[in-house]
Amino acid sequence: MQYTICSHKTFDPGSDCLNPRALTEQEAISEQKSFLSLEWNRLLDLDRDPEKELGNEPPWL
């Protein structure tokens, strides 16, 4: 078994582990939209309501 402890600034598996570069604001927004889209579709696959869970009033607020 092997593992690596990466920098706390490492964003995803494609990031450099030890010296990741900072994302631009536009890159960060793009990443968030991509992940939100995947999460939205996952909730649909689970027969859950993504609007309720990821919309403007999620249950944890």
Would you give an account of this structure?
By secondary structure, this protein is an all-alpha fold. The chain contains two helices and no strands. It has helices at residues 25-45, 50-54. The longest helix has 21 residues, at 25-45. It is elongated and about 40 Å long. The model has no long low-confidence stretch (mean pLDDT 87).
Chart the SSEs and their pairings:
Layout (H helix, E strand, L loop, with lengths): L24 H21 L4 H5 L7
Number of strands: 0
Summarize the helix and strand pattern as letters.
HH
General form:
elongated
Mean pLDDT: 87
Strand content: under 5%
- In DSSP terms, counting alpha (H) and pi (I) runs of 4 or more, how many helices? 2
Radius of gyration: 15 Å
Low-confidence stretches: none
Largest sheet: none
Helix percentage range: 40-55%
Category from helices, strands and their pairing: mainly alpha
Report how far apart the termini are: 40 Å
